Amino acid sequence: MGVATIGRVSRDNTSADPTVRAPLVLPGNDYASVTDKVCGIVESPTPPKAWYVAFGVASTLTGVLGAVVLYLITTGVGVWGLNKPVSWGFDITNFVFWVGIGHAGTLISAILYLFRQKWRTGINRFAEAMTIFAVICALMFPGIHVGRIWLEYWIAPLPNQMSMWPNFRSPLLWDFFAVGTYFTVSLCFWYMGLIPDIATLRDRATGKVRTIAYGIAALGWTGSNRHWHRYERAYLLLAALATPLVLSVHSIVSFDFATSMLPGWHATIFPPYFVAGAIFGGFAMVLLLAVPCRQWFGLKDVITPRHLENMCKILLATGMMVGYAYAIEFFISWYSGNPAEGFVFINRAFGPYAWAYWTMVFCNVVTPQVFWSRRARSNPWIIFGVALCVNVGMWFERFVIIVTTLSRDFLPSSWNSYTPTWVEVLTLLGSFGLFFTLFLLFLRFLPMVAMAEVKAIMPVPHPPERR
Amino acid sequence: MTPQVTDGRPVWGLLAEFATPDDLVHAAASVRDAGYTRWDAHTPFPVHGLDGAMGIRSTRLPYLVLAAAIAGATGGLVMQWWMNAVDYPLIISGKPFNSLPASIPVTFELTVLFAALTAFFGMLVANALPRFHHPLFASQAFRRVTTDAFFLAIEAKDPRFDRAATERLLVGARATRVTAIEG
């Protein structure tokens, strides 16, 4: 088997020289070494120690989540700090936060695919997994915040004992369709990409359990080119469908706010503003996961410095879009001449929740600016720190939008403040536990890099010596 | 006469291995030109140019997906109109019972949902997957097809299959190894 070698070249593939095509898999790798590296993670008898520590913490938090949700359901939504007028707090903040996280995964897997950004292949698999798990966390929050969860099926257009149908003019119902479709389509897309790679695990499996489990999951894939032909077409179709879908999902989430009459929510800028913020926050989460994973699992050849640098640039660009949206919100509130609108924004920046507002501005607008420097874009510690900041900032963005508006509506006599209870704080922490538990299990049992796609963008091997 | 392997069991076909994707593409073109019909190439990733070399006709899956998208859009619109304007008219802020703008989000989502599920399951059905048994799985060498090996398999059921002549064709096309697979 010929080895794809490109001679002795530097392992820094972040060169901006447009005359040189930077390798997307570092030199010294061939098809077999990519398979060995990626499958080795799943096949090693024991994961790294860091995995055990992380899994211990994450699964404990998941247990806490289960306990507080059970407490909520058996007692009632009064265990949360919500009341009139702040009837949405941590629950919907967390929902919008987690849905937003998912968007980067779809952007990488679908939009970058349509734009033929070949570097996506190193990171698309675990970004898609991140999408699935983030949307699971997101779906949980509207699910538990309704109070009487046993009546949840009323939102679906199913015949029920009241002989009534849902109100299709409600954005909350649009949300149900949007996020439900998003989850289903993301799952199909992710699983489809996994089929050839699970087949690799099946073909390398030694134990009986692994052979059977991966054998079933691989659906009998043989790498047939007649199959690849339809597979690639279906993959392209799914990418083309997921692209408008992902833009629609956060637009519809923003309709939950924008179609209301409340000052601070009733704004036409919301759909693009929310989509940009979702991609921004999602890419921060991808970086937050990619930086330690490539370190712990020895994947630096596949998730290269160039991948990290590209994502930093996207973070910088979307961070500035978000900053622009913050500025335009202020401008419009002044330009509209509407006193209620103007007050809400002054109150955001200088009122009782000013600390949350300025945390958001600092984390989302100021910190990504370090990525103008190439040295910052190639330093994993700085990348990790900024990604962490952006995640905090994007959570606060949703908190600021929801709580500042609700706590100060048109009528000063109904103003009130909102403080979360311990149950809400533990539910937020627990949702991170659930997300990381699922993600760590994914790292342990499924290939975290799309091997077949990475191989397809590697240089074709030179023919060996002919006899 | 049914071709036989040495111990007397029937042959499912011949499996040829190639060193590089380029060799496989050239071999596929010669097998296509020789008029074979029941054969396939097996690769770890989709190889550029192989569809043309094998003479694969473009799949009709996109038309199926388009039909599903139209069905999803129509179904979504009709469902909302019937539920909110006919079967149980809901008075919401004095708005019209049937209003197209408010129906667009759900219609769009159902369009994408139907189309995406059709693309995914249509691909599986057209490829006859899942299929948990395949004669090629018996070959130890074939396990490398999902790592770094490039194969071409010709079935004995092919009307042009002739054990010796087919093997000569494959070896002549630079196969590094040709083995018979039991059926």
Give the helices and strands of chain A as they follow along the chain: HHHHHHHHHHHHHHH
**Radius of gyration of chain A over alpha carbons?**
24 Å
Q: Quick check: average pLDDT of chain A?
A: 89
Please tell me what the overall shape of chain A is. Answer: globular
Major interchain interface with per-chain residue totals? A-B, 70 and 68 residues
Q: Could you describe the 3D structure shown?
A:
The complex is a heterodimer of chains A (467) and B (183). The radius of gyration of chain A is 24 Å and the shape is globular. Chain A has 15 helices and no strands. Chain A has a single domain, classed as Formate dehydrogenase/DMSO reductase fold. The longest helix of chain A is centred in the middle third of the chain and has 34 residues, at 171-204. Chain A is mainly α and 467 residues long. Chain B folds into two domains: 11-58 and 133-182, no CATH class; 63-126, no CATH class. Chain B has five helices and four strands, in the order βαβαααβαβ. Chain B has a four-stranded antiparallel beta sheet with strand order 2-3-1-4. The two termini of chain B are 15 Å apart. Chain B is of the alpha+beta class and 183 residues long. In chain B, helix 3 (61-87) runs antiparallel to helix 4. The chains are: A mainly alpha (467), B alpha+beta (183). At the A-B interface, helix 1, helix 5, helix 7 and helix 15 of A face helix 1, strand 2, helix 2, helix 3 and helix 4 of B.
What's the arrangement of secondary structure elements?
The complex is a heterodimer of chains A (467) and B (183).
Chain A: H1 31-43, H2 49-75, H3 90-114, H4 124-145, H5 171-204, H6 208-217, H7 225-258, H8 270-296, H9 305-335, H10 339-350, H11 354-366, H12 374-377, H13 380-407, H14 422-445, H15 451-456
Helix pairs in contact in A: 2-14, 3-4, 3-7, 3-8, 3-13, 4-5, 4-14, 5-6, 5-7, 7-8, 8-9, 8-13, 9-10, 10-11, 11-13
Chain B: E1 11-18, H1 21-33, E2 39-42, H2 50-54, H3 61-87, H4 100-126, E3 150-155, H5 163-172, E4 177-182
Antiparallel strand pairs in B: 1-3, 1-4, 2-3
